[in-house]
Amino acid sequence: MRMISLNMPRIKLCQLPTDLEPASNLSEKLENVTIYFKRDDNTGLAMGGNKGRKLEFLLADAIKKEADVIITTGSIQSNHTRMTCAACRKLGLDVILVLKGKKPLSFQGNLLLEKLMNADIRFVDALSYDDIGITVNYIMSELKAEGKKPYFIPVGGSVGLGACGYVDCALELFNQADKQNLRIDYIVNAVGSGGTSAGLEVGVRLAKKNSKIVGISVDAEKTVFKQDISRIAQDCASLLEADLKILPEDITVFDEYIGEDGYGKPSRQGIEAIKLVAETEGIILDPVYSGKAMAGLIDLVKKGFFEKGSNIVFIHTGGTPALFDMLVNN
Fold first, then answer.
1. Which of 38, 115, 123, 180 is deepest in the core (most CB within 10 A)?
2. Residue 100, pLDDT score
3. In this structure, are residues 61 and 9 in contact, taking their beta carbons and an 8 Å threshold?
4. At how many degrees (to 10) do helices 160-179 and 195-206 cross?
5. Whole-number mean pLDDT of the chain?
6. What average pLDDT score do residues 46-53 get?
7. Are 252 and 212 in contact (CB under 8 A)?
8. Residue 128 falls in the annotated catalytic set
9. How far does Cα 18 stand from its chain's mean position?
């Protein structure tokens, strides 16, 4: 495939390209399909993950605007805030993390890494990110009054500009697949804020491929994510000056694998998927995102959603540090 260049400001933060690996043992276990892993858990930035690709574009914009402090938000065990902190330390920027939830008694997982990087962490016990936004606006106003130049990155970096990172990932993936003479039928990924899926949707269309993006929600109902992914993808396409129309009905998201306890809590199926992948491939998934997404993939294979003989690429979005906060005892 001819490589398509994204003519957008960008700063190198990740170790790219990430590997495209066959999962032969897992494929044999599941039967009828062939699974590949796109190893975006190995992007670098304090133990890696998918957010680094988005930050290459978002922080390039921040630097262009002469920002000196980055503010972002996420959950208590947010991979996005951990990687944003690492990127800011690499670039010499101050960083404030506004986390949704009560301050825990001990710092483990992503929180521990953020503490090691000496992040300014603010905890807000709020019901929604709209409530968090009030705190963020107050902090922004304070910083501006002090003569600072703050730059805000929304939760997950899931805006049109951030999604450019996964347009680039899709193009990188298809270039690797073409070199291997590999047809990709499906691309499966966890959906937590929608930016990764949105970028992949744009990337598939720019590459003129027929691969189907399948999102596995780890948080909201599919109707919500269909709207969000469509909106972010359309914003991304506009930034790239690409004449694309990506409607909510074009988006495939499953919301049956969130788990009884909801977002941020391990599910029984997710834990089983983590163990299966570890036992068959020696690849470690996380309990919040990739574990639940893999649980969805496995169940959909069993239900016959994927045609026999399909090649499925699983985007490993990282998140391993959360394992050390949410102990798997089952």
1. 38
2. 95
3. yes
4. 50
5. 95
6. 97
7. yes
8. no
9. 14
**Residue 247: is it exposed, middle or buried by C-beta count within 10 angstroms (0-12/13-18/19+)?**
exposed
Contact 58, 8 (CB under 8 A): no
DSSP 108: -
Q: Own/partner pairs for 241-249, CB < 8 Å, 24+ apart? A: 242/202, 242/205, 242/206, 244/202, 244/205, 244/206, 246/198, 246/201, 246/202, 246/205
Q: Indicate whether 328 pLDDT > 50.
A: no
Domains of the chain in sequence order: 20-49+159-324 (3.40.50.1100), 51-157 (3.40.50.1100)
- Can you count the helices (H) and strands (E) in the chain? 10, 10
Q: How do beta strands 33-38 and 20-22 pair?
A: antiparallel
The C-alpha atoms of residue 320 and residue 274 are separated, in whole angstroms, by 11
For the chain, how big is the Rg over CA atoms in Å?
19
Answering whether pTM is above 0.90, one says: yes
Residue type, 285: L
Q: Average of pLDDT values for 202-207?
A: 98
Q: Please identify which of the residues 75, 78, 267, 290 carries the catalytic annotation.
A: 78
CB 183 within 8 A of CB 222: no
- How many Å apart are CA 317 and CA 86, to the nearest integer? 16
3-state secondary structure of 93: coil
Name residue, tokens 């190198």: 12
Residue 329 pLDDT more than 60?
Answer: no
* pLDDT per residue as tens digits for the range 256-269: 999 988 888 899 99
Give the pLDDT of residue 43. 98
Q: DSSP characters for 143-191?
A: HHHTT--EEEE-GGG-SHHHHHHHHHHHHHHHHHHHHTT----EEEEEE
What are the tens digits of pLDDT across the range 290-308? 999 999 999 999 999 999 9
State the Cα–Cα distance between residues 97 and 106, nearest whole angstrom: 17
